[in-house]
Each structure stands twice: as C-alpha cells, then as structure tokens.
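Regression test attached.
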Amino acid sequence: MKKYQRVFLGIFLALSSLLLAHSLFAEEKNPAQASYELALDRYNHLKHLEETQSWDEYFAQGNDYRDQIVTGVQKAIEATKATDALNIQARLLSWQFHKDQQDAFAEQALIDLMSAVSEYANTTGNVTLIKEVADKLSSYQEKRNSRELYKIYVAKIINVSAKDEELLKIAENFYKEGNLELSETVYDAYLERLSKAAPEKLIPLLTGIAKQFAYKDEGNKDTLYAEKIFQKIEDLGKKEAFDEHLMYSRAFNLEKAKEYSKAKDIYLKLIQDFPSTLHADEAAYKAGLISAYVLRDKEGARGYFEKLTSREKDISPQVISSFYQLGLIAQWEENLDKAKEYYTQLITLAAGNFPETTAAANQRLKEIEEKKALDYNTKLFIDLALSAENIGSNMSKSELKASLYNLQKGQEAKISSEAYLPASGCMQIELQYLWSGDTGKNLPSVMAPSFNASYNEPGTKLIGLIVSSSSGTVDRNLDILDVR
Amino acid sequence: MLAACSLFFLTIILGAASRAKPTVFIKKLKNKHYQLIVERKPYIVKGVCYSPIPIGGNHEYDWWSDTSKPWMIDGKMMQAMGVNTIRLYQTHENTEEVKTVIRDLYQNFGIRTILGDWLGFWEYPCPFYGDKRFQDKVKASVLDMVKNYKDEPGVLFWILGNENNYSCLGAVNPWSSDEIDKEPDPQKQKAMKSEVYYSFINELSREIHKIDPNHPVAMGNGELIGLDAANKYCQDVDIVACIIYRGKTFGNLFRSLRMTFDKPILLAEFGADAYDAYLKKEDQNMQAFFLESQWRQIYENLANNKEGEGNCIGGTMFEWSDEWWKHAPDNPDSWKAQDTESNWTNGSYYFDIKAESNKNMNEEWFGLVALSQEQEFGMNKRIPRKAYYVVREFWKNPTLEVKKKVKK
C-alpha cells in the first residue's frame, strides 16, 4: 500500500470510529436511528475497502461488517413504520446491500422498498426522500421502478407548485443536471397540464423540448423522447409547425436513433415540402443509402441517386457520391460498362475537387480494367444488403456507432462496433471486422472492432461493416456520418 | 422346516440388499431442497478442477504416469485446505494409472474424484451429435469409463461433457446433420440440435444407471443455456454441472435453474484469475475476493438454508494449479513462460476490465496454487495463493451474512 493510501485509510478509519462512537452514543437516545447509522457506516466502509482494495481488513472483518449491516437495518425497520423516513432509508440500504451482493434477497428487498415508499408517499412523505430513492434506483438501472417513483415525486411537486412556469423550470433544471428520466417525467406532466391549450401556444413549447432532446454530438440527448415530442407536434395537424430546419432535425434525429425507415420518409418529406432546402442533396442521398443498404430496395435507391446525378450544375458532394453508388451497384450486378461509365463521369465532374471519392472511383475502375472482382469487403457488404438469401443479416446482432456524427474536415471520430454473439462461455470466439465504404484516410485492420475516421472532403459518408467468425458471417451493419 | 426358514430369511436379506441405498445419491428433501448423500451422510462438494500440467507441458502431457506423483503433493495441500473433491475432465487410457490416482487421493487424504468425459467435443472436425456412429463411439468411451471405475470407493459421480451445449448454438465447434440442414429457420435449427444433444445425454445417463446404480450422473452445461430443452429431453440426469463465470456471485442462477430444470446443481467450473490485465501484475487479492464471494453464495443455496434455493450441492473451483500452456496451445515455446496476455473478456470481473480491448481474463492464472520454476519433490514447486487461505478460512467458518428475515 502506498504512503498516501495508508494516510487516507488512517483518516477514514478514524472518522469511521468517530461515527461509530457517535452511533453508539446516539443509541441511548434513538436505538433505531443508531442501528441504521451503524449499518450505513458499515456499508460505506465495506464499499470503501473494496474500492481501495484494502484487502487485509476486508477479509478479516468483512463477514462481521455484513452481519452488522443486516442486523442494523433489520432493527431500524422493525422499530419504525413505513410512514417514517427512517424506515424508507433502512429499506433502501437493505436493497442496496443485497443488490451489491447480487444475492437472492435483492428482489424481495426491492418489492418491500417500493411498497413502503408508496405507503410513505400516501401519508406525510417528504418529496426529497422519494426523489433520493428514485435517483438511487435509477443509478442502479432499475428504470421501471425509478420511473414509478419519479411519477409520484412529480405528482407531489405539482400539488405544491402552483405555476406552470415553475414546473417548466424544474424540468429544465433536471435536464441540465443530466437527469433526463426525471426531466422527461416533469415535461410529460407539464404537457399534460397544457393538453387543452391552443396549438399556437403548444407548438413553440413542443419545438423547444424536441430540439432540447434531439440528437447532437455534444450534450444531453434522448433521441426516442425527442421523436415522441416531434410526433406530438405532427399530431397537432398544423403544417406550418415544421419549418425546414425542424423537419431536418427530426429526420437527422431518427437517423441517429437508427429508425432508418421513418428517417427516410421524413427526409423525402423535407425535399417535397422544402425543395430548395440546403439539406436537399443530403436528404436525397441518405434516402438512397437507406433504401439500398437498409431497406434492400435497390431500384428505389437507384431512383434517388439518379435524380441527383441528373443535375447539370451545383455539383455537391452528394451528387458525386451518388455517381459512386450507382457505379457500385452496377459493378455488383456485373454490368461493368455501366459501372465504368458512372465512375468516369464522377471523375470528370469532380475535376480534382473530391480527392477521396475520386480515389475510390479510380480503384473501382482499375478493378474493372484489370478484370478483377469488386473489393471483397465491399462486395460482401452489398451481397448481404441486397441478396434475398441474406435476409437474416438484419443488423440485429451487431451495433455500429460513431463518437461524432457532424465532423469538420480533418476532425477524427471514433467508429466502434459491438457484436452480439451466441453464448460461448470461456471459449472466446475470434471475430473479423470487414470494413468498407467511406472509412477515411485510416484503413482499419481486419482484427479491429473500432478505428478513428477522418476525412479531407465534405459530404455524407457511409461506413459498412461485416462481422464474421470462423463459422461464418455474424451480421452486417452501417453508419452514416456528415462532414460539413 | 429349517430349509423353509433359511429360504425365508435369505429372501428377506436379499430383498433388503436389493433395496439398499446407493453409495452416492441425490436426496430430495421434504422442503424440495436437494442434498448429495455419500455413504449415508450429507456431502458438500468442496472441490477443485484438477489438471496438474507442469511448466513446459501442454494438455497432452501424461501426468498420470509421472513418477513424482504430483497428486500426492497436491492431495496433501488440498487436504490441509479443506478440499474434499477433485474434478477430472477426462480419464486416461491406462486404467491402472487412473485407479492409482483415485485410490491415492481417497486413501491418503479422503479426497473423492468426479470423473468426466468430453463426449468427443474436441474431436476434429466437430462433434457430430446427430450421427449414430459418432454417438456409438462416444457411448462406448463413456460406458468404458463407468465400467472401469464404478467400483472404486473414491469415485463420487460422473460428469458428461463440459460446455458442449454451446455447440448447439453454432458459435463453438458447430455441427449439423442432413435433417437439420434442411430446416431454413436458424432458430429451429438450434432447437433441433438441442433436442438431438440432450436426448443423447439422456440415453447415456440411462445406460450408466443400468450398469452403475451407485453413482449419480451429472451433465456438464455452459451457463443455463439450453436447459429448457434438457427439461424436455434429459430428465434422467441426476445433477446439472454448470460452468459459470459471473464474477462476484452467480446472480439469480439457483432460482432460474429451479424454474427451468429442477435438478440439483454443482458449480462445476467457476472462479477468477489472479492477474490484473489492466495494471499488468499479479493480483492474488482480486482472485481471493471473487472466490470468497462465490463460495458465500454457494453456501447460501445449499440444502436446508431456508433463505436460499436449496438446490446447490457445492462446487469445483477452476482450478487447482496454473497451466502455462493455455494462452498459446500450439506454440511449445510459450509453455515455458507464464503468459500475461488475456484470452477473453468478462465484464463481471470488473477490477481489470479497463485492460486493452477489455480482455481481462488470464487463462494461465486461475490456479489456487501458482507454479514455480523451482523444483521440489521432482515437480514444479506449488505456491499457494491468497485464495487458498481465504477459501480455507471460509470453509472452516462459513458465515452467511443473512441469517434473519427482515420484517415485511
């Protein structure tokens, strides 16, 4: 043990002893409180020993401490009623202890805690304690129960909080604190209050909330909650509620929530309602990518890409990339003349302005000229996306995500993947990662489940991945990034 | 008259003999808990998986014929620790050598042996459990084992396979059959494989019971995967021998088993490694911490502990001594050094989960005793790790933290 650790441990033990002495002294006045405090002290101390890996005391005293926790909590519960705050605190500690121990008693302790809090809330309960229990449940990922208690907590706040504005402020504050679960519960209660309000009043409020929760690279977000609010706006039936920015924001949010089919619909609606939007090319290109590689609709995809390539001026990065996608599909179909035509057109139109896409097109052209097969990873990715027999490869057994989705030129984003494999115990399955598409200037290794991508040209980037094991393909996946 | 009386008493004696309790059996108590009974007394399996491969050897090393008899040194140390059982994954072709090991351990140290068979799991190209010829071959191997050792007093019971059930899911040692290949739905294929596999285990169990009524049959199983199928097709096994690596405890394992396949459970492989893959140094405390916690939960779920499920009969920790060949089984040079590179990842062992690629499980560092390059008694010197002492103390005084029921 290092010197500073010993000093820290010494201070901690001294404080623990003082607290224990205080607990014993207090026992004369309030035995239940003293029992609880002793149990709490032992619980914290045991956690501290584990965290600081102070094993000598852990192994020597651990069983005694556990016994004291159980006994102390039991005494406190037996001496109080569910209407007492101490009873709730003791039950919370009991559940935490068993949850940490991952033992068979955790389940019953949670049922007892929830039932006691419910009774407590019906009487003279103070809202702070209810929130403390909900926060603790939430931190242990007991989301269903924490949500239930947050609802009780919010109902109590509403009773005492007369003004809507105050409720809004509370929701915003919880959002800023990062407690999105509670923030959403308060927003829901707030919106429920305003359910009879005129759409003109509701729409700006809903828009603000949706923007707050919608996807962004930095800050708090909950894409599914954001879409729930976007849907509320749509349900109000006011066409003017969505301007082009809000509609783009909704589509982008859906795309990041991997709700691709609906994202495509909103992108298309964006183009339809706002033909001159700045996001038109991006929206059309993404509709093409989603159609081909998610929805397996090759002809639909071809339609969106062709619409972009038919343009004679304002050549955007997405127009260039559409030529590439059309070339790829043609090459995959072994219509090599057509593929060559697309790649050649791309290179001519790019005129040196899109070096990365041009380089990819040149590589494909070389394959065609040298009568070589389409790059293995790329071909396999398209096979799995478009061939009917690969319908089982549906992106449910893997995940692909990026640390950033809106990049500047040269900025790096970490692309990471995870595969959900059938159980294999301690027999580790070696996986291979076949990356394809716009992987940027860093070529990821076949053994790498993640890599850092960065790009030198703007545009919408598609990254493809096949995860495979010795017994075959595990799954495919894709992700879309935008370089602005 | 005398002849008639003699015949009468002979009939009674023979009848009583035919109804005699087996040497080792599972008793289901009135409270539905399970107890392993050995020679009329309850028996808690306090065991270790045993594979005494010396430094420089690999799994093919023939330790059975090692003249320095490593099991005698190990047996003495095990006895001092409180170990009463070893688990062997597979027997050896020389039956006399196997008997010597079983007898030496039992007669000298009171340590019993659980004997197992891999069921052809590691055969090349793969274990064709749907193939009759493959089944016959495996069956012959298993029944030979039973016939050879069933009369050894040191034998505790049999374990069929280890984590073979994972092969039904297709990720490990995948196999199939013509009939299964005709089924287009992958989920149905898995169900068909499970039916084939667990039906085969059931058949083996029946055959073993016919020739050896004195020892239960356990089925090795990775986690609880596939036990819904076992419940349908494999009711003749007596014990489920689970391989579980869930970190600090086994979670809801005992209750889940009760719900899916109500059989007694032996934790046939569990434990923790003693190498911190993040800090890149040995950490004996980490291993001791996990093992003590795991044993606490095993004891909570033994029979007649009213707070637990009462379906656990004990466990065999993985493993008695380190094995230096495991990280690179095909590279003999690496068997002479203890590899510190991790083979697999398991987030439940959280102290070193921040290791590169989260690979934190060091396969060569699971021993309760470490091996030294130094020779002692003609073999690598054994150096007990902290877990050896911590588990020993737990077994001496298995304090359970939860003794009283909290008021509802």
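Expected vs. actual: identical. The mean pLDDT of chain A is 91.
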